[in-house]
Amino acid sequence: QVQLVESGGGLVQPGGSLRLSCAAYGSLFSSNAMGWYRQSPGKERELVAAITSGGTSNYADSVKGRFTISRDGAKNSVYLQMSSLKPEDTAVYYCNARFLLGSAKGDHWGKGTLVTVSS
């Protein structure tokens, strides 16, 4: 069973920066893709950014130019560097790991880390 552990959330002022980290444990295979989703009260969970094992990245339009996703395949880890943060970025951020092989095949989710952007 794959477990994802997120870290890096917290309180930051508008215009500030924050870096989220996530590591997946429990699989002998590397994830095929990892990413970050977020959910704020009253809204549906949305994709923030994702990156494949081949290095292809995808971003939500709302964060393009402000957020950067990166990965370490050997560690099954993914990172999200967030800059120029806005109050509307406030949400619980969830790490996702997708596996196409092995017993861990499928999507796995972390418990989430809260990011609050407020003055």
- Percent of residues in β-strands: over 45%
How confident overall, as mean pLDDT?
Answer: 94
Q: What global shape is seen?
A: globular
Q: Percent helix among the residues?
A: under 10%
Distance between the termini: 40 Å
Q: Gyration radius, to the nearest Å?
A: 14 Å
What's the number of helices?
Answer: 0
Helix/strand order, N-terminal first:
EEEEEEEEEEE
| Class of secondary structure makeup | mainly beta
Beta strands, count? 11
Chain-wise SSE layout:
Layout: E1 3-7, E2 10-12, E3 18-25, E4 33-39, E5 46-52, E6 57-59, E7 67-72, E8 77-82, E9 91-99, E10 106-109, E11 113-117
Parallel strand pairs: 2-11
Antiparallel strand pairs: 1-3, 3-8, 4-5, 4-9, 5-6, 7-8, 9-10, 9-11
Structure write-up:
There is one protein chain. By secondary structure, this protein is mainly β. The protein contains no helices and 11 strands. Strands 2, 4, 5, 6, 9, 10 and 11 form a 7-stranded mixed beta sheet that branches. Strands 1-3-8-7 form a 4-stranded antiparallel beta sheet, with no helix packed on it. The radius of gyration is 14 Å and the shape is globular. The protein starts with a strand and ends with a strand.
